[in-house]
Amino acid sequence: MTISELRKKFISGEYTPMEAVAEAKAVISEKDGDIHAYLDVYDDAEEMAKEATARYQKEGGNTPPLCGVPLAIKNNILIAGKRATGASKILDNYIASYDATVIKRLRDAGAIFIGSTNMDEFAMGSSTENSAYGPTRNPIDQSRVPGGSSGGSAAAVAMSSVPAALGTDTGGSIRQPASYCGLVGLKPTYGAVSRYGLMAMGSSLDQAGTLTNSVEDAETLFNVIAGRDPHDMTTISGETYGVAPTKDTYTFGVPRAFLGQGVDADVMERFESHLDELRAAGHRIVDIELPLFEAGLAAYYIVMPAEVSSNLARFDGIRYGVRKEGKDLLETYLNSRADGFGAEAKRRILLGTYVLSSGYFDAYYGKAEALRGKMRDELNAAFAQVDLVVTPTAPTPAFKLGEKSDPLSMYRQDIFTVPVNLTGVPALSIPMGEVERDGVSLPTGVQYIAPHGGEARLFDIGRKVYDAKRYNNG
Ligand code: GLN
Questions:
Q1: CA-CA distance, 402 to 128, in Å (whole number)?
Q2: CA-CA distance, 428 to 267, in Å (whole number)?
Q3: Residue-level pLDDT at 241
Q4: Which of 454, 460, 428, 414 is nearest to 125 (CA)?
Q5: 173 tagged catalytic
Q6: For strand 70-74 and strand 388-392, is the pairing parallel, antiparallel, or unpaired?
Q7: pLDDT digits (tens, 9 = 90+) for 370-382
Q8: Cα 264 to averaged position of ligand 1 atoms, centre (Å)
C-alpha cells in the first residue's frame, strides 16, 4: 500500500494504525530472517499505534498527514533513545541522545518508526555488503544485492513491511537502491532537508531523502521533512522551490555521449522505450552535451573521501562508540579505529587523508573542487535549454552478492548519480521497466534531474509518468 492509500483507510476507519503496525511486524518476522533489511525493530511502535488509532477515532481527517503511518529509518539517522550504528562496529553500543530534525518533523506529523535499516558502513557502498552486521538481500531476487548504501531501507519497502523509508544519498545511495528494488527514490536539492542528526559522510554532498512506492508519497514525505532548520546553516527555505515552474509538457535533455559509458544493452533499450513513452505523451527529447560529467566519478572519489576522512576522525573510541584499550592513549586510538572500521571505511580514510595532505592538496582536492564549479556551470547552461535532464539511474540491474569484489567496478554503478550530488541539484528515480537475468525479471530505474530547488517539477512529471500509469489516478 502507498501512504496515501493507508491514510484514506485510516480516516474511513476501514483499517487502523494498530493493524498496520501488527502487519508490519508480521511481515518482518516472516521475511526479515532471509532479507535482513532491519538492524533493530522497535517495540514501542505498538504504543504509538494505539495513540494514533485513538486520534483517528477522535479527529479523523484532521489528524496530521502521517498519523499512524509506519516508516523504516536508515541507521545513520538519529532517533532519541534508539541505537544508531551507521552499520559500523565502532558505534555498536551507541544510543542516540536526540532526534535528527527529519525525525522530529516526521514525529510531529504523526509517523510511527518501525525500526532502523541496514546500510553500507557509514553509507559507503552501492550494495549494502559493507555493513558490519552482514548484507541485506534483494527481496525480488535473494541472490542479488538491493543496492546501497540505503539497501536496507529499499528492501524494507520492497518486501512490503512499510509503505516508505528514509535513506541518505551522498552519491546515489537512495536512487540506485530504488532502481534495483523497483521503487521511487528522491534525492532532494542540497540544503532542502536538514542534515542535523545525520551521521556525516561527505558533508557537502549528503542529503536525506525518501524511498516510496509512488511519487505522490515522495512528495508527501518531502513536504514534511524539508525546510529551514536553525541547527543546519546550509538549509534553504521553502520559497526557493518556485524557481522551476511546472508545465504541461517538458523538454528533456539526454546527455548522449555520457550515456555511452558502459550501460548494459537491455537497460539502454528500456531507456530508449522510456524516451518513446515521453515523446508519445507530448514531451520533447533533445540531445545535450555534458562533457565534464564524464569526470564526475573521478571528482567524487577525491571530494567524498576527503570529507569522509575528516568526518570519521571523531570516532576515536574515547567520546563514544566502542573502545579497545591499549597501553597508552595513542594505542587506544589505533586499536579502536583498526578494530572498529571495516575495509571500505579504511580505504576511504586513507585516500582522503592522502588527497588532503599538503603536497597534494592543490593537485587533487583543489582541482576536484574547481571541476565541481565547472560542472555546475555546464549544468546551468543545459537548463537554459531543457527543463529536465534524463539518464538511466544505474548502468545495470541489481548484481549478485559478492559479484563486485573489485571496489572500482562497484564505484562505476554510481556514474550517473554522483554528478547530481556534486552539483547539488535534486533528482528522482522512478521504475522504467524490467530486464531479465537468469530467468528473473529485475527492475531498472530512470533518473530525472531538475534545476536547483526544482522538486515541484520532479513531482509533477513523476506523477504524470509513473503514478498515473501505476495507480490510474490520473
Ligand atoms: N555508492 C556511493 C559510495 O559508495 C554513494 C554512497 C552514498 O550515496 N552514500 O560512495
A1: 11
A2: 18
A3: 63
A4: 414
A5: yes
A6: unpaired
A7: 999 999 999 999 9
A8: 21
Residue 172 CA, ligand 1 centroid: distance in Å: 6
User: Which ligand 1 atom is the nearest neighbour of the CA of 201?
Assistant: 9
- The residue type at 249: T
Q: Where are the domains of the chain?
A: 1-474
Q: Which residues of 109-121 are buried (b: 16+ CB within 10 A; e: fewer)?
A: bbbbbbbbbbbbb
- For residue 310, which phi and psi values (nearest 5 degrees)? -75, -40
- The cell numbers describing 194, all together, are 536538514
- 3-state class (DSSP) for residue 171: coil
For residue 469, give the 3-state DSSP assignment.
helix
Residues 6+ apart with CB under 8 A from 361: 355
∠ CA 111-115-118, nearest 5°, is 130
Residue 361 has pLDDT above 50, yes or no: yes
For cell 503514478, name the residue.
Answer: 467
Cell numbers for 301, please give them.
572519489
- Which of 4, 25, 31, 74 is catalytic? The answer is 74
Q: Is 149 among the residues known to form the active site? A: yes
- Going by pLDDT thresholds of 50, 70 and 90, the confidence category of residue 244 is confident
Which class is 1-474 in CATH? alpha beta
E strands within 309-400? 388-392
The protein residue whose alpha carbon is closest to atom 10 in ligand 1 is 124
List all residues 6 or more positions away from 162 whose beta carbon is below 8 Å from its beta carbon: 24, 70, 71, 72, 114, 156
474 has pLDDT over 50: no
pTM beyond cutoff 0.85? yes
- Grid cell for residue 103: 525525525
Active site residue: 126, 150, 153, 173, which one?
173
Q: How far, in Å, is the centroid of ligand 1 from the Cα of 59?
A: 42
